[in-house]
Amino acid sequence: MVLLKKINSKAKTNQNSGFGTNANSYGGRFVNKNGTANIEKRGMHLLRRISWYHTMIEMPNWKFLSILFAFYIAINFIFALLYYAIGIEHLDGITTSGSVLNQFGQAYFFSAQTFTTVGYGHISPTGFLTSVLSSAEALIGLLCFAIATGLFFGRFSKPTAFLKFSHHALISPYGQSKALMLRLVPFKNTNFTDATAKIALGMSIEENGKMINKFYNLELELDHINALSLSWTLVHPITENSPLYNFTEEDFKKIHGEIMVFISTFDDMFSNTVAASTSYTFNEIVYGAKFETMYNRSEDSTKTILHLDKLNHFEAVNLA
Questions:
Q1: What is the pLDDT of residues 107-131, one digit of tens each?
Q2: DSSP 37
Q3: pTM, full prediction
Q4: What is the sign, positive or negative, of the torsion defined by CA atoms of 262, 166, 314, 284?
Q5: CA-to-CA distance for 205 and 203, rounded, in angstroms?
Q6: How far apart, in whole angstroms, are the C-alpha atoms of residue 270 and residue 285?
Q7: pLDDT digits (tens, 9 = 90+) for 14-38
Q8: C-alpha span between 269 and 272 (Å, rounded)
Q9: CA-closest candidate to residue 205, choices 256, 254, 248, 245
Q10: Taking the CB of residue 77, how many other CB atoms lie within 10 A of it?
């Protein structure tokens, strides 16, 4: 096969990639852009295969807050229905001369006061059923607020690698040859030390008449730095030992391949090691380009200015 000839025989495959080798069983990319595995799990009930804690911790802020507000409104609505079903005459202080909507509204706000244990005292339960229901609601409210507080703390205290990766990887000039390059940058006021990078290449190729997945570890010019304060350009020199050695621009357009990036670094704020990952399919690799510099010296020469908005800036170059 032509493809097999393009892959240098000196390139060593990675037998411990963690991904399956049968290409016919795989769909799409191996790793999503956000670093998660491109896997959908089935064969087990939804409630058993999903960790609700991890789901609530990982979801976007707007969705997390929307769920909390929706739950708060819904549970008070349910309790208001129960109070109304028992009879509003058992809620001392409610005005019974108003409309049904007004009476239900008063029952709803009594529920909100009970759920939050505020208890203004304007309305109070009378009768056994109403008292039991309000006691149960107060207990449920305490438990729900404890869970919500724990989730808020978990979201704020979760060790997170505040790193951004460039949208594209590049094939750039490198000495007398060329190299695969991609860039990352810390974008918050964090202090990263002892950063380590690993890059793997995955490709679906035909071997003995069967499509299989093959994986290769790509050697980096520099895979470890003591401090990650500025942008870091990961460089894989395309030498004779690289599986990309014979690849042309057309090969990157025709072949189904993916570059997977794994970063780990120590964050002294969390006092913990954090990790981040992403991937680039071959159609997200720009052939014949180089990154623009992201930082420069300040006007008074006392600081280095890191321009985060230049992370994805590159310019076209000719490759010999």
A1: 999 999 999 988 888 888 998 999 9
A2: B
A3: 0.81
A4: positive
A5: 6
A6: 34
A7: 666 677 777 667 778 888 888 888 8
A8: 8
A9: 256
A10: 14
